[in-house]
Write a structure and sequence with these properties.
The protein is α/β, with parallel strands linked by helices and 371 residues long. The chain contains 9 helices and 20 strands. Strand 14, helix 8 and strand 15 form a beta-alpha-beta unit. Helix 3 crosses helix 4. It binds iron/sulfur cluster. The site of iron/sulfur cluster (SF4) has 12 residues, from loops.
Length: 371
Amino acid sequence: MSTLADVLAQTTRAGSLYNCLPDGRLRCYACGHCCPLPDGAIGVCKVRFNQNGELRVPRGYVGGVQCAPIEKKPFFHAHPGAQAYSFGMLGCDLHCGYCQNWVTSQALRDPQAVAPPIAASPEGLVADALRLGARVIVSTYNEPLITSEWAVDVFKAAKAAGLTTGYVSNGNGTPEVLEFLRPWVDLYKVDLKSFDDRHYRQLGGRIEPILWTIRRLHELGIWLEIVTLLIPGFNNSDDEIERLTAFLAGVSPDIPWHVTAFHKDYRMNDPENTTPEMLIRATDIGTRNGLRYVYAGNLPGRVGDLEHTRCHHCHALLVERYGYFIQQYRLTSDGGCPDCGTSIPGRWGAGFDGQITSTPFLPGTRRLRMA
Ligand code: SF4
């Protein structure tokens, strides 16, 4: 019986994000690990490998797809209420013990993570997205940076069809991969997991490439929102939140910051679940540090005002939410506050077209054979 790695090795193409080192190895630039790969070696992500002096990278399948409101990603300042068609492949460059997408992200590391690949084409995915009424298409579920060539293939077809494109990513980027993505990615969510390099090393990464990626995405003008999953005892000390939010506000006070509640998942079962009080405390620190758009997520109806968008100038209510459900929308057609006229940072449509909250999805695709 073939292993999952064997099956995935059959569905690859030549990569774009690498160069040849003087000693004959290949240097991959798709993520901040920048793996040097001798012939026959596979990267930390376990999906990109050197085969006879060529970097082979994933193509032609998805590990999962779903169509849901964009607020679930979460993007709160980009096309509110729009259906976002999400697709992902398999594998990740980190190995977070609390991953909520571990079935796809850890499929190559953990035998319990069974996620059979489904054959797909860029045109087929875009056609499905359009059929389901999506206005946005998002690469997510696994770490999209490590499968960027495939994402760009899909996004080229998506942009030709008029869709907005997005990444939901751990932000472990490089100059090369951001330059590669720049023409094709409109929205980018970075999961800033901690502000402590030791914590990042526990998860299999380093903090520096992630902070660099956040700065660079903002410079490039790609719409950026940040999420921090608040894990009691791991990253929720006042000191860490203080430094994290001061950093973000230093990049731009207009970057929305979502601080979301942890619930026990995958291998991280020791910490207690995050309480509403913990979220509120973290958002208070973020606001004090100058962030203008701070949200508390994953505990609908239990965090007071912190699910809503208010004008940073006059504090008028602009978007009222319960979880990802939009209950009231008051922005003007050019993305301004209707009361004081202040321009609200984001990528707004001309209006709010309502929200479809449940869309069944049956992929028009087939499973890849594993036997
Ligand atoms: S994507 Fe990252 S982990 Fe995978 S081979 Fe490239 S540099 Fe290494």
